């Protein structure tokens, strides 16, 4: 059994990363899940959230926005609408987006057609702010 995974992350616009990692944790549609080397093949959906991966003692964080994860032969392929590594997130822009979404939601009711889009925008902004604050964690 291999002791590493190959992590490939792609959006419709660009190839985000291709790394050898020891572990992946992702925000599944029904809850967070982890992937280690030797994982059973699977295909599942992702929700807006934080994906993290470990390389040795370092843990990296990425804000992701809807997509799919496929695991096969120790390769984890992540296909997402958007993905922003913690060190690439513009924190001020994320805070501004949060403010806009909060203001819009105060003016809407759940029956308004824009309500769901603004809720998703709020969730994306909150995740981006959360991930931006993490950077790279280095263990012992």
Task: Give an overview of the whole structure.
This protein has 140 residues and is α+β, with helices and mostly antiparallel strands. Helix content is 25%, strand content 46%. The protein has two helices and nine strands, in the order E-E-E-E-E-E-E-E-H-H-E. Strands 1, 2, 3, 4, 5, 6, 7, 8 and 9 form a nine-stranded mixed sheet that branches. Helix 1 packs antiparallel against helix 2. The model has no long low-confidence stretch (mean pLDDT 90).
For this entry, give a set of tags.
140 residues; alpha+beta; Single alpha-helices involved in coiled-coils or other helix-helix interfaces; elongated
Concise account of the structure shown:
This protein is α+β, with helices and mostly antiparallel strands.
Largest sheet: 9 strands, mixed
C-alpha Rg, in Å? 16 Å
Contiguous uncertain segments of 5+ residues: none
Give the beta-strand count.
9
Helix content: 25-40%
Classified by CATH, the class of the largest domain is: Mainly Beta
CATH topology-level fold name of the largest domain: ATP Synthase, domain 1
Tell me the CATH superfamily of the largest domain: F0F1 ATP synthase delta/epsilon subunit, N-terminal
Inertia-based shape: elongated
The name of the CATH architecture of the largest domain is Sandwich
Summing up helix and strand content along with how strands pair, one would put the structural category as alpha+beta
The separation of the N and C termini measures 25 Å
Percentage beta strand? over 45%
Contiguous helical run count = 2
Summed up, the domain count is 2
Mean pLDDT: 90
| SSE ordering | EEEEEEEEHHE
